[in-house]
Amino acid sequence: MATTNGHTAISAVDAAAEERRRLHHESDVLIVGAGVLGSALAVALGRQGRSVLLLESSLKEPDRIIGELLQPGGVQALEQLGLRDCLEGIDAVPVRGYHVSYQGDTVDIPYPKETPSSPAPEGRAFHHGRFIMKLREAAMACPNVTVVEAKAMELVTCSFNDNVLGVKTVTKDGKTDCYFADLTVVADGYASKFRKGHHEYSPKVRSKFFGLELIDAALPKPFHGHILLNSETPPVLLYQIGTHETRILVDIPENLPSATVEKGGVKGHLRNVILPSLPKGAQGPFLQALEKGQMRSMPNSFLPASTNKTPGLIMLGDALNMRHPLTGGGMTVAFSDVVVIRDVLSPENVPNLADTKKVLKQMEVFHWKRKHGSSVINILSMALYSLFAAGNPNLKVLQRGCFRYFQLGITKGPVSLLAGIIKEPLVLFWHFFSVAFLSLWVLFRESALYMLPFFPFQSISVFVTACVVIFPYIYMELLK
Ligand SMILES: Cc1cc2nc3c(=O)[nH]c(=O)nc-3n(C[C@H](O)[C@H](O)[C@H](O)COP(=O)(O)OP(=O)(O)OC[C@H]3O[C@@H](n4cnc5c(N)ncnc54)[C@H](O)[C@@H]3O)c2cc1C
Ligand SMILES: *[C@@H]1O[C@H](CO)[C@@H](O)[C@H](O)[C@H]1NC(C)=O
């Protein structure tokens, strides 16, 4: 067992709690997974005076293609948690907005200032692993937190009342052990081992992102996320994540015709379809990265949150709730959730975390309160993905309408929703249906004369498609 604790002078009470964590494996809170959510939560609760055990299966710097662009809303939440420092010293790149291209046309979408005199909001893009190491360092520096390298294997439950008491673990060298706490928090990410039986829904995978790291690529609009759209292929994202490095994520739904085995699979699709569509300054680095063969992929899932009913257990982060990573909203939701949970489970609201009834009641409060920071991001990511991936003719009409909407200069609202700055579902609803109506107008204007007799049918069909795109997510996110 590797125990890490970076502190010296602490009070006798805290020292006793530390010893209880280290020797007896007991704490107030046991967090499984020192990723984006788990590390931030450990700091937030530790600073409230809770005794926290943070378990992580590998404390090595992660090397992953996820969680690399933090929206301004996420930077704000990180600031509220007193963790803004974690963005320093990791060669992070400021993000000031988006640059969207569609069939050769482009439009710039800056993050807007709240008032003319306020500074423009900024996001940050970085190497995921470096940021995670900073978050973990912050947890280790907290005297009330003990970080342990061990993998949680299963929950330990009380045999007569089904309360979760802790977890069984195994270390890299095969030693098994147990850790106990009043409250166990599962934050083990997208492929959570512990959802089954404790979560109402299971993830739906809509596509995969294939990622490559480009060296010294020149993008048309530095310090901006790039979204490449086109009516024939699903969206491609590009953003700089370090002085020399740029991430490209290529969305590939299942059964994409240009990625079939006969056409050379995903690699064939990347070489034949994606390469020629990239900005000139990215093509060389893309080809080099492709030839180096370091392509990696991750599933893009949708998972609505559900309220947990198991006493002694809560589920957070990707284990609880997922949305399409197209809009880079996952970490923003995670940090907003930590801000909410810190308040909902504060020592003032819940003096004793062993009071499982009280905790469950507060988690019901959390379920509704967190929607303020998560619903808009979740609905927008899924609806926008449907439009940007445009799998049928009606969606292509909406995709074109969406780009025209941006071209008209109506970007302030939409990008503030995406950035996690505006959190009002009504604003999202308004823009979405404005796009739908603009799409119909564009369809009318750009239809050939002989097609006009079909316009009434076509427009109803497009409108129905728009409703089908958004209402299921509105229902799941706002009402359930
Ligand atoms: C392709 C892709 C790109 C993305 N890009 C972005 C982006 O640009 N911006 C953004 O905001 N969001 C992005 N996201 C979403 C974001 O990465 C997640 O929402 C976020 O990482 C969730 O944090 P988490 O702490 O729940 O999970 P994770 O960050 O995955 O952390 C889980 C941790 O638990 C550990 N663990 C797992 N199992 C165990 C176990 N049994 N015992 C102990 N430890 C365990 C893991 O090692 C890991 O450290 C992306 C997602 C995908 C799929
Ligand atoms: C640790 O917990 C104690 C209560 O046990 C609290 O007084 C103290 O502020 C906490 N320390 C830090 C650095 O958060």
UniProtKB/TrEMBL annotation:
First-listed, main subcellular location of the protein, grouped into a coarse class: endoplasmic reticulum
Location(s) in or outside the cell: Endoplasmic reticulum membrane; Microsome membrane
Reactions listed under catalytic activity: squalene + reduced [NADPH--hemoprotein reductase] + O2 = (S)-2,3-epoxysqualene + oxidized [NADPH--hemoprotein reductase] + H2O + H(+)
TM stretches of this protein: 29-46, 426-444, 450-475
Matches recorded under InterPro entries: FAD/NAD-bd_sf (IPR036188), Squalene_epoxidase (IPR013698), Squalene_monox (IPR040125)
Gene3D superfamilies: FAD/NAD(P)-binding domain (3.50.50.60)
EC number annotated for this UniProt entry: 1.14.14.17
Keyword flag Oxidoreductase: yes
Limits of the Squalene epoxidase domain: 180-451
Pfam families, per database record: SE
Pathway membership: Steroid metabolism; ergosterol biosynthesis
Cofactor(s) needed: FAD
Keyword Oxidoreductase tagged: yes
GO annotation, biological process: ergosterol biosynthetic process
Name the UniProt record assigns to this protein: Squalene monooxygenase
